[in-house]
Amino acid sequence: MGIALADAAASYGADVELVLGPVNLMPSEKNVKVINVITAGSMAEECISRFAGCDIAILSAAVADFSPVNAGKEKIKKTGKDLTLRLKPTKDIAMELGRLKKRDQLLAGFALETGNGITNAKEKLKSKRLDMIVLNSLEDRGAGFGYDTNRITIIDKYNNIDKFELKSKEEAARDILDKIVSMIK
Q: What's the pTM?
């Protein structure tokens, strides 16, 4: 969804910076500035450093919630013994940007849910100080990861809920941007 959103925003005339994790896709709009990152930590750093200079931030990445305490530089060889992997929480980018958000900025996030979607998305919207949240569900056939289509529900800070049918990710991106445009007018 991030690439579809970046392309759609650029086609709407926005200056777009896309902080992009390791993927095999690139935006088709040539005026999208891509900042490549590999880790959740580097994504957090790039997003936080750019946030003060933006009017609208859309957080669509499925960033890992945890990372290894000790990241090895080489493959861990099989020894025949059990292995304990210690993990630490990653920086919550949405929470941090919500904390830094100024009155004239709009912050949109995503929630990928498998149960109690609306309830969980509303809680995330409130706790992270988002202006709107886009709910995806892994329970929707043909939507989300691994598909060119998505079925979204948009919830805004005024508790308006807009449910959409299964659409191409490009069409879903336009629905999200149209909602953002209606909120900034």
A: 0.89
